[in-house]
């Protein structure tokens, strides 16, 4: 099929560079690039590797009871309740 494409400058430069390196026609390079792109676009996305966070011990809790909001706020503001 014959068609007209308008390529961005950076894309055209990359295609021309590949054409020179391979010693093939521009048409072959464009068709191969489109084939690879379509293959990649039509395949399901790869699942990334799960990120794991290491656990570390922070020691004992310095506040006492974190369920007591009044005590936590008092410690955070510098007022120690006794």
Description:
- The protein has helices at 9-22, 26-42, 69-76.
- It has 82 residues and is an all-alpha fold.
- It has a domain at 9-42.
- The mean pLDDT is 88.
Architecture blueprint of SSEs:
Blueprint (H helix, E strand, L loop, with lengths): L8 H14 L3 H17 L26 H8 L6
What descriptive keywords fit this protein?
3 helices; about 50% helix; about 80 residues; mainly alpha
Entry summary:
The protein is built from three helices and no strands. By secondary structure, the protein is mainly alpha-helical.
What is the helix tally?
A: 3
Shape: rod-shaped
> Rounded to an integer, what's the Rg over CA atoms?
31 Å
State the major sheet.
none
């Amino acid at each position: 099929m014959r068609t007209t494409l308008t390529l961005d400058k950076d894309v055209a430069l990359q295609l021309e560079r590949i054409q020179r390196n391979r010693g093939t026609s521009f048409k072959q390079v464009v068709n191969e690039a489109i084939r690879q792109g379509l293959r990649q676009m039509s395949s399901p996305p790869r699942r990334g590797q799960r990120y794991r966070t290491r656990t570390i011990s922070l020691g004992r809790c310095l506040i006492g009871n974190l369920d007591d909001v009044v005590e936590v706020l008092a410690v955070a503001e510098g007022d120690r309740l006794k």
